[in-house]
Amino acid sequence: MLDIPFYIPFTFMLTTFAALFFFYRAGQSAAVLYILLLWLALQGILTRNGFYAVTDTRPLRFLLLVLPPVLGILLIFLTGAGRAWMNGLDYQRLTWLHVVRVPVELILFWLYGRQLVPAIITFEGRNFDILSGLTAPFIAWYGYMRPRLPKGVLIGWNLVCLGLLLNVVIHAILSAPTPIQQLAFDQPNRAVLYFPFVWLPGCIVPLVLFSHLATIRALLRKA
User: Fold this and answer.
1) Which residues, other chains included, contact 120 with Cβ-Cβ below 8 Å and sequence gap of 6+?
2) Residue-wise DSSP of 135-150
3) pTM
4) Tens of pLDDT along 100-113?
5) What is the pLDDT of residues 59-72, one digit of tens each?
6) What superkingdom heads the lineage (predicted)?
7) Peptide bond before residue 196 is cis, with ω within 30 degrees of 0
8) Is the peptide bond before 59 cis (omega within 30 degrees of 0)?
9) What pLDDT is attached to residue 222?
10) Cα 176 to Cα 187: distance, rounded to the nearest angstrom
């Protein structure tokens, strides 16, 4: 466990469940929600037992956290049932999901102040992902609720925000204390190895990634 004030993990857990709420509301699938909740519980148990804190193994234990969600996203895109489910998504609500990126960035900044993540993955460094969360309400309102924005703008916003997400993910991976670490050796990205922050790469990031990819697919399919 990390020796940090209670408000930091508490705020992060609320943020995680907010992301789950938006995602569930967009798809209205109880089965998907149950799978995600079981996934969170499993990762919570592993992390509480210090599973991911051991970083010198090969293959990296961290792969057990990030690969299953990636494979799940691929399965949705590559199967008929998955594509059919995506066709019924509420993309307005899926766009609102990106608002959670604002508290995530604030939490990363708090963790940086506690020397648990490096500056490069906060908005004081090379992470500009907070812009995605700040602009998401505007896109949701004028893109879907009161449609004013052309399809090209919506696609462009999703592509830019997807790039911002990949930027911070790459920096986070390369600054984590593993054998492949390349950045931030003086203050590595340690927080994501502990509960509940393990849910960031294990749940929030995959949900945000899927939301962008599914939305781009839907926009490209429009006549």
Assistant:
1) 126, 127, 171, 175, 183, 184
2) HHHHHHIIIIIS--S-
3) 0.95
4) 999 999 999 999 99
5) 889 899 999 999 99
6) Bacteria
7) yes
8) yes
9) 82
10) 9
Give the start-to-end residue ranges of the domains of the chain: 7-221
Nearest partner of 13 among 34, 32, 41, 35, judged by Cα: 41
Residue 25 CA to residue 39 CA, distance in Å, equals 18
Q: Give the total residue count for the chain.
A: 223
What is the Cα–Cα distance from 65 to 88, expressed in whole angstroms?
28
Task: Answer yes or no: are the C-beta atoms of 197 and 191 closer than 8 Å.
Answer: yes
Assigned token pair, 196: 């509940």
Cα 107–Cα 176–Cα 101 angle in degrees, nearest 5: 30
Helix ranges, 49-174 (H): 63-78, 80-87, 91-96, 101-113, 130-140, 151-174
Evaluate whether 172 touches 192 at the Cβ level (below 8 Å): yes
Tokens at residue 52, please?
Answer: 């991911």
Rounded CA separation 211/201 (Å): 15
Rounded alpha-carbon distances, angstroms, from residue 4 to 57, 111, 208: 27, 9, 26
